[in-house]
Design goal:
It contains one helix and eight strands. The radius of gyration is 19 Å and the shape is elongated.
Amino acid sequence: MESQIGYNFFMKLNGKKVAGVTQDDFNVSAKVVDSITKDDAGAMQSTVISHEITGTIAGKLKKKGTSDQDSLDMDDLMGNELKTGTDAEIPFVYQRASGKAYTGKLIITSYSESTNSEDVGTWSMGVKVIGNMSEQSI
């Protein structure tokens, strides 16, 4: 097996790459129901009923240039955060170096920007997958 460099993994929102990404974290947690019946002779049984999928995407603030129309810039990200209801549901693709991609819809649960007088500004957003995620080969 060979190690995979982080730049081989990327996220697309609404079909566009997110500009300036420096890190993304993806977390999958099983939701489990435990039960004991007389048939189980007192042994607890656990069943996975769904998954909670959350993540964080972070990067450097970027403003779109004329050649960057296929990317989401800092204004696009802020605009997505301000949406509500079904407008806040964003189709995504999480593409992996293995040739697999995972698709679904997510909502942005938090968004922050950090700027100072000496460095490039940064942003960070929390996301949560809603509904099911599906696997695709690319």
